[in-house]
Amino acid sequence: MLSTISGQESTGLQRACGRASIPFRHSARTPNPHSARRPNPRSASAPNPRRAGSAALLLVFVLAMALGLGAWMLLSAPEPTPDDDGGTAAVRAGGTDPDSPLDPGTGSQEMPTGPRAVGGFEMGVEHEYTLYGRVFDGTGTITGEVTIDPGTVYPKAWTVTLEPSRVADGSERAITRVIHGEPGQRTFELRDLPMAAYRIHAEAPGMASMAQEVALFKIEGHEHLAGMDNVHATVKLRKVAYVDGAVRTSNGDVADELPIFLVDRMNKDALALATRTDIAGLFRFDTVNSGAWMLHVGDAVRPLVPPIPVSVSGTPMRLDDVTLPPLALLKVLVFDEYGRPFPDVDLVGYLRGSGSGSFRVRSDALGTATVRYLAPGPWRVEALHAVEGQKGKADLALSASDDESTLHEIHIR
């Protein structure tokens, strides 16, 4: 038979069980006054007045520090220095002070003097350009490689020729060397060469390269250094072809012994290819590299006809016949002060007025000289015998009707 336990007895039993480490459960019928859940004062939903007060104090401290730092910077700035007229060295009413570091035009602060960094490189004080001379003293080495255009079959054999330069100083010390490449060889090396100015080019069956200038030298004033004693050159072989054609005068006759030039359109500084027409008026250029060329007739700079474009693609090319405009012929007889024919006299002529043209010849043993393919017009001819110092000149009017029967005289003294 069950009996009812009061609240005090229940509490006593809980304490007794707790000391005896025996779990105790309330009966379902007995309410537990301690089971009601009390509110947690530290819950997240409840504001914490102590934390809010700390944040406010921190904000006030930061603002006070910022104000104090700003006031210190204003008080520590240097005051403007008064000048002689009572003003300051700052900006005046009419612009800037001449002694001020501000630019008068823009008012911006000028850059400090001294080395500056531009594009990642330190630029020092500018100096005048110094041209150092070349000293050709000692020996050196020229190495190189023979290359070809993409898609071209590499030749089984080639020849590299090294010879003295035709235009540069120092060519008098240069020597000539020839290297014959073997099958599979693509590089070359030339050792113990006298330091000098050279010209190098390569040839192969149906192929050739453009000639290029190379030089071995030392710097003047720094002869104790090695200098340019080891140079590498890349020589490219290209397919070549011949270009030929014919030139005729205005009346249909053959134009023999007429200078013909091929000028490289892509490299105008390169030397032009030169030849002359034969007795039949024909000309031919062998081993012409593929590329764009211009044909000049009569003169490489002032041709007798407009330049003719020539496009070479590695195959033989025959040009259309070239017809010259009506031209004049000059035949001169040089006399000394006694009326005797004077040989070995240098004759220089140039076209006066709006035309262009010139020539340079020397009188033969009979004192005569003949110049063909000249533009009609007024010409000045100057004569000089360098050994005896005698000279003279003549103004001549040339026309297309002049032939070898027309004789012009020049007297020197």
Properties at a glance:
mainly beta, 38% strand, 413 residues, Immunoglobulin-like, 26 strands, eleven-stranded mixed β-sheet, elongated
Commentary on this structure:
The protein is mainly beta and 413 residues long. Among the domains are: 134-238, Sandwich (Immunoglobulin-like), CATH 2.60.40.1120; 239-323, Immunoglobulins (Immunoglobulin-like), CATH 2.60.40.10; 328-411, Sandwich (Immunoglobulin-like). It has 2 helices and 26 strands. It has helices at 7-20, 49-76; strands spanning 116-118, 121-123, 134-135, 139-148, 158-164, 177-181, 187-194, 197-204, 207-208, 212-215, 218-219, 230-248, 259-264, 273-276, 282-289, 291-297, 308-312, 317-318, 322-323, 328-335, 346-351, 358-362, 368-374, 377-385, 390-398, 408-411. Strands 4, 5, 6, 7, 8, 9, 10, 12, 15, 18 and 19 form an 11-stranded mixed beta sheet that branches. It has a 4-stranded antiparallel beta sheet with strand order 14-13-16-17, with no helix packed on it. The longest helix is centred in the N-terminal third of the chain and has 28 residues, at 49-76. The chain is elongated and about 125 Å long. 17% of the residues are buried.
